[in-house]
Amino acid sequence: MLIFQIFISCSQKQDIQNNSKKEIKIAYVLGGGAFRGYSHIGVLKTLESNNIYPDFIVGTSVGSLVGALYAAGINSHELQKLSLSFVSNSLMDFSFLNPGFFDKNKLKRLLERHLPENFTSLKTKFYAVATNLNNGNPTLFSSGDLRKSVLASCSIPILFAPEYIKNIPYGDGGLVSPLPVNFAKNLGADIIISSDISLQPDIIELETGKFSLFLQSLKIMNKSLTKHEEKNSTFIIKVDTNLLSSFSDKTREMAILKGEEAAKNIVNDLKLFIEKKSLN
Q1: Which residues are CB-contacts of 53 (< 8 A; sequence separation ≥ 6)?
Q2: How many CB atoms lie within 10 A of CB 274?
Q3: Residue 243: per-residue pLDDT
């Protein structure tokens, strides 16, 4: 009888220990960076291979495109295969009639093929960040027309015309929130894993031309906005994208590889942190 009681006591203790792990909410934050967004796929590959998955994803600009596709159930290896099937002009055509150098018809067709119409049909909770072009405020989309929300988040001014949602013009989310960490924090994430693919400012040369100075100014503004938010990240995966200067097969493969490598640098610490957090 005593042995049986001891056995029951030990079993109950083991059950308590097994149930002592609390549920933690993990968020992925995927930043903006145009074609450098291929690096996000590499980051996702590494996290996925280590059995780390998000409870929700917040994406801005190209991060919203990659994030939405991933949230729709397209795993990282399928994403890589899909992304490497693109050619340089496969997602955009020159436009002389719209208020942008390119139209979005090819991108729209891509989203129609691979994304459901509404947020509610996604496998993983997803949020897209866009910029309200009437007042300059960031807007978080989590319901309604998923495809239009992603298009809005990716609509880089000058390159693409604004995307109108309920008669309001929206542009690229990276204008005001290139790494939307604060949104993830406000949504209740316990652990925020950010993939930062932004360009870093370079050393200015004496013979720097006008375009290079303009690009340098954008890098500085982007860095300032990112610094404001990144302090709330639990882990920041900074991908070295400065050498990715053009859209080509080699560049895309290199971008994915750089994303994998950057994520591998933090993944062991991340796994230990998740384990510790779940036991607290």
Answers
A1: 26, 47, 124
A2: 19
A3: 64
Strands (E) in the chain, as ranges, are 26-30, 56-60, 93-94, 102-103, 125-132, 138-141, 163-165, 168-172, 191-196, 235-238
User: Tens digit of pLDDT for each residue in 196-222?
Assistant: 998 776 666 655 665 566 566 666 777
> 95 — phi, psi (to 5°)?
-135, 130
Give me the phi and psi of 196, to 5 degrees please: -100, 115
Helical spans, DSSP H, in 102-237: 105-114, 146-153, 181-186, 210-230
What is the model's pLDDT at position 186?
97
Q: Report residue 152 as tokens.
A: 């809005």
Tokens 């947020």: give the residue: 119
Where does residue 60 rank: exposed (0-12), middle (13-18), buried (19+ CB within 10 A)?
buried
SS3 category, 196: strand
Burial (Cβ within 10 Å: 0-12, 13-18, ≥19) of residue 19 = exposed
Tokens of 219: 């890098």
Residues with catalytic roles: 61, 172
The pTM of the full predicted model, rounded to 2 decimals, is: 0.85
